[in-house]
Design goal:
Number of helices: 13
Shape: globular
Structural class: mainly alpha
Number of strands: 4
Radius of gyration: 24 Å
Oligomer: single chain
Helix content: 25-40%
Distance between the termini: 36 Å
Largest sheet: 2 strands, antiparallel
């Protein structure tokens, strides 16, 4: 303290006491934060293409009328999904740039999606990969499903409603980041006349680059701290079970959360699809990128049912066929459509409970039918238990009956699984 005093000879005693107090407080906070050190590591700066993608992602001028950006339906504070409380409490489906026009599904998460492969079938005939709930951004054209997905909403009349690719390119030309675009992609890369398709593709690939960035996918959750410590100790998290769970104690999850993880892996069968295996050296993404019909009931509050016939000819009788609906429109896969009616993509569970405050509502499943994780887990556990009286599935064909429906979980076990899933929220 003597050196501090000499450096500031005119400071009053009161100020000095305040400085000492702040210094001590800082040291105490630092000590308390040691356990979170891994999660709070400073993120690397965005690369130029990631920065460009971020500007595109948050540009409200890329809609007709102007005012709706990608982030309007994919907000970081809620895990890359919808940030509107009223919508989440009801239909879960978001209004597009044109007032009164709604899509037909809840926004999926824009985070942790970059590893989804090009849509293909595995040895057992299951579809894997692609983007959107129904897999229609296959990745077959660009070799990148995430970039193909970015091409969709800006031209969708029920979303950002731009009339054509040229109109989007012209808006980017007028933006304050046009120079950055040419820095990333080269001089003349925004020429809408000579090669508009190429310019539009570059816009999509830039957005995908941002969605793959460490800013969007920080792997900073409580679970990630635990997973890294387990790795360092030579323990494979995907091997956890009833008999060996105690060796994972003290690595960042408390006993209840660990019990939830064990149930997630074993009796609950959650990890059958929301897999615990690491990919490319990264912590688990909690999805195997497959498709399932879980037997979700219709959400009667979905505003798409009330859309005009121009957008929804079936009105309240519309049925969401999911992957099968896309396949029946594809000459390549039409013969496989009926076997996939009602199936939707298995989402990542990362940030499944991330919200700006504890009472902030979120919507779950492709149609927003469920409003809390407790109800989701209870449905998985008891869908096929007659005494529960769940509403009928929207589509009863192709139901997953091997990994859910009557799991025999107790109320305490359901609660433990929910507690574990809450550890998957990134620290922002």
């Amino acid at each position: 303290m003597k050196k501090k005093y000499l450096l500031f000879p005119t400071l009053s005693l009161t100020v000095l006491v305040l400085l000492i107090s702040l210094s001590c407080s800082s040291r105490k906070k630092s000590a308390r934060g040691e356990g979170q050190k891994e999660a709070s590591l400073k993120l690397a700066a965005l690369t130029p293409i990631e920065e460009l993608g971020k500007k595109l992602f948050f540009d409200k001028n890329l809609s007709t009328p102007e005012g709706q950006e990608c982030a309007a339906c994919h907000a970081r504070a809620v895990g890359g999904t919808g940030p509107d409380e009223a919508i989440n409490r009801s239909g879960g489906v978001y209004e597009g740039a044109v007032k009164g026009r709604f899509g037909n599904r809840k926004p999926p998460s824009s985070a942790y999606a970059g590893d989804s492969p090009v849509l293909h079938r595995d040895a057992e005939g299951n579809f894997i990969g692609g983007m959107f709930w129904d897999g229609r951004a296959t990745g077959e054209t660009l070799g990148d499903p995430l970039a193909e997905q970015a091409m969709g909403p800006v031209l969708n009349p029920l979303e950002q409603n731009n009339p054509d690719k040229k109109s989007i390119i012209l808006q980017v030309q007028k933006s304050d980041y046009a120079a950055l675009f040419e820095e990333v992609w080269g001089k003349g890369s925004l020429d809408a006349e000579k090669n508009g398709d190429a310019a539009y593709e570059k816009i999509a690939r830039s957005i995908a680059a941002y969605e793959r960035s460490a800013e969007v996918n920080p792997f900073s959750s409580k679970f990630d701290d635990f997973w890294r410590r387990a790795q360092a100790a030579g323990l494979a998290v995907d091997s956890i079970d009833d008999s060996g769970w105690k060796k994972f104690a003290g690595l960042g999850l408390d006993d209840q959360e660990l019990q939830g993880l064990v149930l997630f892996k074993t009796k609950g069968k959650c990890a059958d699809c929301h897999v615990l295996t690491a990919e490319k050296g990264k912590a688990p993404l909690f999805t195997d990128f497959t498709y399932d019909n879980l037997g979700i009931p219709k959400n009667p509050e979905n505003p798409f049912y009330k859309m005009p016939k121009d957008w929804n000819p079936d009105g309240p009788d519309w049925v969401d066929k999911g992957l099968g609906g896309f396949l029946e429109e594809s000459p390549k896969y039409a013969s496989l459509a009926s076997a996939n009616f009602g199936k939707h993509k298995v989402p990542t569970l990362r940030n499944v409970d991330l919200r700006p405050r504890p009472d902030f509502p979120k919507a779950y499943m492709h149609n927003g039918f469920f409003k809390d994780l407790e109800a989701v887990v209870h449905f998985y556990n008891t869908r096929d238990v007659s005494s529960e009286n769940w509403p009928a599935p929207e589509i009863s064909e192709n139901l997953n009956t091997t990994e859910m429906g009557n799991l025999g979980l107790t109320a305490k076990e359901e609660a433990a699984i929910v507690l574990f899933m809450k550890t998957l929220s990134d620290r922002l």
